[in-house]
């Protein structure tokens, strides 16, 4: 987003015009930013055989998936429904990594039929898999590296007490199952968490993957998961992708040499690809001063963007309708019957009733975690591509609130 002649714009389109055209609340995504992020990653890992498997759960609109497909990326899917979304937009099953957690074996069997790469995250499932398929279907194994990292306890998933992956301490048990069924293990996977800043965390994960990999002879790829930290706050330090790329690639190449085979390196970024591309445009319904605060009550809330409430996440806010003049301190809150503070104590140029605010970093885990809480409608989504705005999801209507409810006539 740029500020040109006191107007906030994406690819030359003014955000207040977008809000006027589509109404608020509305999610707006900058397609060029998404393409740039992919390019940056490809550049950072240009020295190794990189495969990007975009984490679909971050933002799963079919047009975003199509845009990513055009960049040459594949996807990571965590449910059979996300796998189906991938197929729907034309991904080849071989470009889809299926990384489920605690699903039934039936769902895994469905994925086998479709032909996607299956990432197995527990030993009982590995046993089921061995009994059903032996070595006839290639698989990946998700290891839990026991690394505590990530921006928030709720999104740190690689520690010893996490439900994800198979403990690295249980590698011997894994090898036993692999041997007894002759499983065809072609990949190993770790994902330590989200909002990870340091290259060292990825390098630590790499060492653990490399050590484990030496126990398998038929590997084709190692998957480092996602988790690159993006900037949420002005002045935030963010992952230096070029530095991470250089350091991890160097270690990876050295490992491949000792392994005797050039493996592919896979990553599953979500936030890095889409977080900064997205803005949630909302309207100030009311400016309400109390003896201690000035609240801006907007036409959205935790039903549309749950991150501030769920993770105490910081999201920058811009007054799209007024970019200059005296600043005041405001607390931006939603219209939900809960304390749904979106942003506390923010300095903004004077906000008046009816002004449009843009909530930043709303591309990742924004719409995809939205709900109908308080029987509110989910917002529309707009993609800006090649200087044009495209409606990519209609705003819900009251019919959507009633859909699937069964009136039993009492
Ligand atoms: N791969 C796996 C196996 C994952 O579990 C995740 C995220 C990713 C990749 C992508 O991570 P990313 O690059 O987006 O950090 N809703 C939370 C984030 C949850 C992430 C869950 N797994 C949030 O809004 O912060």
From TrEMBL:
Transmembrane segments: none annotated. Substrate binds at residues 307, 311, 338, 365. Pyridoxal 5'-phosphate binds at residues 227, 365. Its cofactor is pyridoxal 5'-phosphate. It is an enzyme of class 4 (lyase). This is Diaminopimelate decarboxylase. Residues 32-275 form the Orn/DAP/Arg decarboxylase 2 N-terminal domain. Residues 27-363 form the Orn/DAP/Arg decarboxylase 2 C-terminal domain. Homodimer. It comes from Belliella filtrata.
């Amino acid at each position: 987003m740029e500020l040109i002649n006191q107007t906030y714009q994406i690819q030359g389109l003014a955000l207040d015009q977008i809000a006027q055209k589509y109404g608020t609340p509305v999610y707006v995504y900058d397609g060029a930013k998404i393409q740039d992020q992919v390019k940056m990653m490809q550049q950072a890992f240009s020295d190794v055989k990189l495969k990007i498997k975009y984490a679909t759960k971050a933002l799963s609109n079919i047009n975003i998936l199509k845009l990513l497909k055009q960049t040459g990326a594949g996807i990571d899917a965590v449910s059979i429904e996300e796998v189906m979304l991938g197929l729907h937009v034309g991904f080849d099953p071989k470009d889809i990594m299926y990384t489920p957690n605690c699903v039934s074996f039936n769902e895994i069997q469905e994925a086998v039929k479709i032909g996607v790469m299956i990432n197995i995250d527990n030993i009982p499932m590995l046993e089921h898999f061995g009994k059903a398929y032996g070595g006839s279907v290639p698989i990946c194994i998700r290891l839990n590296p026991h690394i505590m990292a990530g921006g928030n306890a709720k999104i740190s998933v690689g520690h010893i007490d996490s439900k994800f992956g198979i403990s690295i301490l249980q590698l011997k048990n894994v090898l036993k199952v692999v041997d007894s069924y002759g499983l065809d293990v072609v990949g190993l996977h770790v994902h330590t968490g989200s909002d990870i800043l340091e290259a060292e965390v990825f390098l630590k994960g790499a060492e653990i993957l490399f050590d484990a990999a030496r126990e398998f002879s038929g590997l084709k790829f190692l998957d480092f998961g996602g988790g690159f930290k993006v900037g949420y706050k002005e002045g935030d330090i963010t992952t230096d992708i070029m530095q991470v790329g250089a350091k991890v690639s160097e270690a990876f190449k050295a490992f491949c040499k000792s392994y005797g085979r050039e493996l592919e390196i896979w990553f599953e970024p979500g936030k890095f690809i889409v977080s900064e591309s997205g803005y949630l445009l909302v309207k100030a319904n009311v400016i309400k001063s109390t003896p201690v605060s000035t609240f801006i009550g907007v036409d959205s809330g935790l039903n549309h963007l749950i991150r501030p409430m769920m993770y105490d996440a910081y999201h920058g806010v811009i007054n799209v309708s007024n970019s200059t003049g005296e600043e005041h301190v405001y607390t931006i809150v939603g219209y939900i019957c809960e304390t749904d503070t979106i942003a506390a104590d923010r300095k903004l140029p004077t906000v008046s009733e009816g002004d449009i605010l843009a909530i930043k970093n709303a591309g990742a885990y924004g719409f995809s975690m939205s709900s109908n809480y308080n029987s509110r409608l989910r917002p529309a989504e707009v993609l800006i591509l090649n200087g044009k705005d495209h409606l990519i999801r209609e705003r819900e209507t009251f019919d959507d609130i009633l859909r699937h409810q069964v009136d039993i006539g009492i």
